[in-house]
Amino acid sequence: MQSYYFFTIDENRVQTFRTQLLQLVPFITTTTQATDDQAKIAAAKKTAAEGNVAPPLLKISGVNIAFTQKGLVQLEINNEKIGDTAFENGMLASAATLGDPGSTSASGPDWIPAFKQHIHGVILVSGESHKTVNEKLAMVKHIFDAGCHDASIHEVHHIGGNVRPGKEKGHEHFGFLDGISQPAIQGFDTNPNPGQETVPPGTILLGREGDTVTRPSWAMDGSFISFRYLFQLVPEFNEFLKANAISGLPVEQGSELLGARLVGRWKSGAPIDLTPEKDDPALGVDPLRNNNFSYNILNDQTTQDRCPFAAHVRKTNPRGDLEDPHLPASPAISTTINRIIRRGVQFGPEVTADEAASGKTKNGRGLLFAAYQSNIGNGFEFLQQSWANNSAFPPFKAPVTPGWDPIIGQIGPEKGVSVEPTVRVMSGTNPSSQATNLNLSAQWVVPKGGEYFFSPSISALKNTFALAQG
C-alpha cells in the first residue's frame, strides 16, 4: 500500500517547518533499510514456499519526502540552481509537450484542480497494509501539526494506492504484470539478472558518475521524481481488444494476442519477442529469463513478426532497436542516459460487473506512477516525447511507420510534422497483415495530474533542509 500526501508549506511558518523536519529525518527510509526489508520479504516467501503455505504479511513501512521547485524557493534553498530546466519549470509547464489532453486550451490540461495549484512537496508513505500506512502518515502529519491552527504544512491533495487482490497482485489494472524491466545501478546492484542493463549511478543520482550537470553540493545523491496521476479506462480497453481481435482465432484468444502485441508482453509478463504466439506464465515470472531479450531474433529489426515496433515495452526500452551494432546508424546508440527507475502502485477498485457488461468506466482507477532519474529531460520527458509520442520511433524501420505507443503515447508536437494527426495509429498489430495500421480509437491511459519533485539525500535533509532548534 502507498500514500501520496501533497502539501504546501505555510509562508508564515517556514522556519518552524525546517525545525520540525529534523524530527522526520530519523523516519526516512535508508537504502540499507530498504535492502534489509527486501531481504526479509524474500526470506519469508522462500520459507513459505518450502512449507507450501502462503507467505506471512510482514509489518514493513517506508517514508520519504520530496520538494518541488516552488518548495525549494519557499524553503530559501534555491541560491544555487539545481540544474534541471524541466524541474525548475514544473510539470504543468510541460503538459503541452507531453501531449496531455486540453493543454492548449486557456484553462490548461484536463487535470484535477489540485495539480494546477501550488504544491511545495510530497510525503510518500508505504507499508504492507492500509493500517500501517495510515498510522505512519498520521505520525508524520503530527510532526508538522497538520490540520491544526498552527500547522506548518497544509494538505493540497491526498491519494492512496492499493495492491490489487489475489492473483492480480503485481499486475496493473489492464491485467499485465508490471515493473519487470528496471536498470541495475552500478555499485548498488551487484548481481543483475540476465538482460538487465547496468547503468552508472549518475543516471539516477545527482552528482554521481554519469551525471554530467554541475550540481550544488546539497543535491548530491538526490534524485528527481516524475509523478503522474494516470487514470485507466479498463472496460473501454477490453472492449477495444474484443472489437479488434486478431482474425483467425477465437475472439478470446484473438483479443488476448492483440493485447499482448500492444503491450509487448503477455499478461503473465512473458515477452512476446520470446514467445510470440502463446503465453508462457513460467517465463513471465522467471527473473532469469523474462528480461533477457533484445529484439535481435531472426528478422526482429526488419519485420514485426514477433513484436510490433510500437509495442509499449519496445517504445519505452528499445534495446536492440538502438543498440544493435549492425544498425544503419552504426555505431550503436546508447540509451544509458535515458533509463529511469519506475515505481508504481495501483489505485481505485476492481472493475465491477456493471462496468464490464457496459464497457464503460464508472469508477476511477489507474496508476500512481513515479519515475526516478538525475535528468528529467533525458529521462521521463525524453521517453514520453521522443519515444512514446513519436510515431516514427523506433528509427530505421522504413518504409514502415511504427506508430504511437498504444498505452501511454499521446498526440502532441512531433518533429517534422506540420499538421497534427487527430487519431493515433499503430502498425504491426496483426502479424499476418503488418502493413495495416490499426486506429487506436481512444486514449485508455488519461493523465489527470502530475508534478516534478526533488528527493534529497538524508544527509542533505539533515544538514541543509532542516534547521536545528535554537
Task: Summarize the structure in words.
The protein is of the alpha+beta class. It has 14 helices and twelve strands. It has helices at about 15-25, 30-50, 70-75, 85-90, 90-100, 130-145, 235-245, 250-265, 280-285, 310-315, 320-325, 355-360, 380-390, 460-465; strands at about 1-10, 60-65, 120-125, 155-160, 185, 200, 225-230, 340-345, 365-375, 425, 435-440, 445-455. Strands 2-3-1-4 form a four-stranded antiparallel β-sheet. The radius of gyration is 23 Å and the shape is globular.
Write the layout of secondary structure elements.
Blueprint: E1 2-9, H1 14-24, H2 31-50, E2 61-67, H3 69-74, H4 85-89, H5 91-98, E3 121-127, H6 130-143, E4 153-161, E5 184-185, E6 198-199, E7 223-232, H7 234-243, H8 251-263, H9 281-284, H10 312-316, H11 320-323, E8 341-347, H12 353-358, E9 366-373, H13 380-388, E10 424-427, E11 437-440, E12 445-455, H14 458-465
Parallel strand pairs: 5-6
Antiparallel strand pairs: 1-3, 1-4, 2-3, 7-9, 7-12, 8-9, 10-11
Helix pairs in contact: 7-8
